[in-house]
Amino acid sequence: MAPDSARPETAHATDSRTNLVGLSREALAATMAKFGEKPFRAKQLWHWIYHRGATDFADMTDLSKALRTKMVDHFVVARPKIAREQTSTDSTRKWLMEFDDGQKAETVFIPDDDRGAVCVSSQVGCTLTCRFCHTGTQRLVRNLTPAEIVGQFMVARDSYGEWPTPTDEGRLLSNIVMMGMGEPLYNFENVATALKIIMDGEGIAVGKRRITLSTSGVVPEIHRCGAELGVNLAISLHAPDDDTRSVIMPINKKYPLKELMQACRDYPGASNARRITFEYVMLKGMNDTPAHARALIKLTKDIPCKFNLIPFNPWPGTPYECSDAATVETFAQVLWDAGFSAPVRTPRGRDILAACGQLKTDSERLSAKEQRLKDAAEAEAAKQMWAEKEAGI
Ligand code: SAH
Ligand code: SF4
Fold first, then answer.
1. Can you give the pLDDT at residue 271?
2. Is 364 part of the annotated catalytic residue set?
3. Mutate which of 216, 310, 360 to test ligand 2's pocket (most atoms within 8 Å of Cβ)?
4. Which domains does the chain have, with CATH numbers?
5. CA-235 nearest atom, ligand 1
6. CA 184 to CA 212: how far, in whole Å?
7. Per-residue pLDDT for 332 more than 70?
């Protein structure tokens, strides 16, 4: 599992040459046609880039020597740079990726025994400001390009020497979760292009059932995600009622629960075999009582779904605390008793700030002290409402 130091220095697209990574199959064919080459060149290149992981045209031995030399003058097969790599005591690995314009985003690999998921970022920062999320304290800097999204997974594979693409069973980097920095459905076009490249069976070949896209609930794009990509859907739910959810996730004011739940019901392919995951971060005193759990059951009763209970991961300056273990247990029990799958996620990579919601790069923080005070007042009101409900049971 040591980083593969035998690999040649990877090209970075810091010059005017075109990066071939991130072009759809059609775009790659068009680029080659413009270059005076036949369509089968695109197929050969695709194989080298995405199946073999080649970064150097010199290695592409079924292209003529003359063509290889010519390609070098015009194209690169580039990855993001690794600005920093850290490995947690629990083997979780995090990369700080640096892109051509100097912007940065993080990617995390969470290994299990013989498989594991790569958590990929879709944006630098985030436009949304979920109160419990470290990324949410960072302004949106920009969307990531398809090359930067695919490139994150390729860097992860480089790091474990997982080229050429192994069979499904032979892979350590077996799954992808779009759960890194940013809201993937606010960068849908680029995420879709990237995931189509990743899913292509003649290249990286990670199937749609091994990919999960997580959204805070951008309702209009949820349907497109199902229709065009067909990947697994995870929803960051975090509260069973609009009052609480709007406090901790301001996007709820735009797309309230009624619309979000309808989008889930309509999600193509949602069935008992392919359930939607509701992520639920356990915030002390905010969303963690048995009454909240019962309200969740009511909210989701006609949706094929499972829950993922996430202990809140703290970060510097956070206003929240994680619910205590007994509270989490009681909460989970209510869901279990109603027949739901609701595992409590074991935090991974906390020591290197690689756990859910801890990712952040060094762009400016929101200087919104007043906003925080307002939030605190709203939070108090929502808590009060739940305390009264709880007392009334
Ligand atoms: N923007 C998307 C993708 C990010 S996924 C989304 O919000 O779904 C990251 C997951 O971690 C989301 O479910 C998010 O709500 C959750 N999360 C954010 N901050 C967290 C924290 N501090 N502790 C635990 N989970 C957190
Ligand atoms: Fe953005 Fe998701 Fe964090 Fe909310 S939870 S701020 S949508 S990354």
1. 78
2. no
3. 216
4. 18-76 (1.10.150.530), 81-391 (3.20.20.70)
5. 8
6. 11
7. yes
- Under the banding of pLDDT at 50, 70 and 90, the label for residue 392 is low
Long-range pairs, 385-393, Cβ under 8 A, ≥24: 385/243, 386/244, 386/289, 386/291, 386/292, 389/291, 390/289, 390/290, 390/291, 393/291
Q: Of these residues, 9, 26, 106, 305, which one is catalytic?
A: 106
Rounded to whole angstroms, the Cα distance separating 86 from 349 reads: 10
Instruction: Name which residue sits closest to atom 17 of ligand 1, judged by CA.
Output: 357
For ligand 1, what atom is nearest to the CA of residue 214? 8
Whether the predicted model's global pTM rises above the 0.70 cut: yes
Both tokens of 252, joined, read 């709820």
Task: Indicate whether 373 pLDDT > 70.
Answer: no
> Look-up: residue for tokens 């010199």?
58
- The Cα–Cα gap between 66 and 266 comes to 53
For the record, the structure tokens of 52 come out as: 């073999």
